[in-house]
């Protein structure tokens, strides 16, 4: 695989860009934080997705380094000191990830493993196709910390699951497995643990046999039908998110869209995980997150041979 990165210091890049022939591989690369989201990550991810199209890639695989796809917003990062305008601009940059995926003329395939929490879960489900390792856990912990979902989930989740199940997942913050996600139509393929990236690349290879214009039109046709009004939904989500900025219940934008804390438990830091809210575990940076019921430790990253709650 030929590897090209945006800077001369790939080890410091929060998002890495590689080419595997006509397929671009975009990798969230903060493994020490279970690829927790920061404003820089949002910016770099949008840049990498746009770069793939500009360079003529025929498909994109979006994945995460280390033991998780993405554990949500990074609670270890200092809360930004920002006025309402700056907060809105930051939220729009977060929304730009879904905008870019949906506007891309090439298929974007999520290769997910470990934890996909909060914004990480939103980004995965915004992709055109999703390949998940069998021990992946998904979760929307936002409501437990006084926040609301972003990246079009308020529309996309209900369109696939129906309003009742979508409300249940968002209101309770309950985690769900890769097999459950496949049964509900949120995931296309569940593959052996550790094989998610290889299977996603194979799926991308199958798409290369199709005429690029036909693929682009298939994507646009379905997205227009299912996502009519998506731009309005993205704008509405920013408006709703602004209502909790500075209220004290959701003033730290990272405090909830993250199962990361649990997803990174045992280390010290970030968002919430399955079942309770955060999601990880044994890095040296995870910690606890305070939800509706107070602080809690996060469970370990899902792995073979370990029964998940």
Automatic annotation (TrEMBL):
This is Enoyl-CoA hydratase/isomerase family protein. Coiled coil: none annotated. GO terms for molecular function: isomerase activity. Belongs to the enoyl-CoA hydratase/isomerase family. InterPro entries: ClpP/crotonase-like_dom_sf (IPR029045), Enoyl-CoA_hyd/isom_CS (IPR018376), Enoyl-CoA_hydra/iso (IPR001753). Gene3D superfamilies: 2-enoyl-CoA Hydratase, Chain A, domain 1 (3.90.226.10). SUPFAM superfamilies: ClpP/crotonase. Transmembrane segments: none annotated. It holds the Pfam family ECH_1. Residues 245-309 are annotated as: Disordered.
